[in-house]
Amino acid sequence: MKRILISAVALLLFLNGIAAADRYVPTKGSFVRIEGTSTLHEWKMEGSTINGEIAAPPIEQWQNGSAPTDVTVTIPVASIKSDHDKMDKLMADALKADKNPVIRYELSRAILTQAAPAFTVTTKGQLTIAGVTREIDMQVSGTRDAAGTYVLNGQAPIRMSDFGIKPPTAMLGTIKTGNDVKVTFRWTVQPTKN
After folding, report:
1. Strand (E) positions, the chain?
2. How far is residue 89's CA from residue 46's CA, in Å, rounded to a whole number?
């Protein structure tokens, strides 16, 4: 009974921290880039739409390097484009965009490893691509300006097969993309106006 009571109190404190946290929403200046290889050449796709929300206290208020933090990110698959319509279609098909139109990320843990003004956070979260969810670790660096706008930068290696994605092919299978891709992002968020 005592253990249950302690767990309930800890949960209430966590939820109270989230409720009292500052909230941030996307603003201009964001991008996501996916880079990979193929048997013909390297390729790149980019998008400027990163939706979602952050609920967290300001970095300087984090206690012992952590704080109750709620982060949800969604990226529309259709917003990520290359210089070639054929490549866009192949990738949309590979990502099963008709049934899974967004890439989704939910933070499960964040640890501050370097404090402001420029800061670094080591994160763990759940990434869902093509309907398959996997846990990923990622280091995110960031800055905050005088208006309270955060610019967050990160990079993660992704193996397509880990998400049940068959790397796209073209020209009757003679051109094949590599299984490993690199995802880079810059997410700019600003405080919500209450």
Report:
1. 22-26, 31-36, 43-47, 51-56, 70-76, 102-114, 119-129, 132-144, 150-159, 169-170, 175-176, 180-191
2. 14
The number of distinct structural domains making up the chain is 1
108 phi/psi in degrees, rounded to 5 = -115, -25
Look at residue 179 and give its three-state secondary structure: coil
Per the CB < 8 A criterion, the answer to whether 25 and 190 are in contact is: yes
Alpha carbon distance 104, 131 (integer Å) = 9
Contact 185, 30 (CB under 8 A): yes
Per-residue pLDDT tens digits for 147-183: 889 999 999 999 999 999 988 877 656 678 889 999 9
Say which CATH number the domain at 121 has. 2.40.128.110
- Give the pTM: 0.83
Q: Which domain holds residue 37?
A: 2-191
Residues 49-81: pLDDT tens digits?
A: 999 999 998 888 887 788 888 999 999 999 999
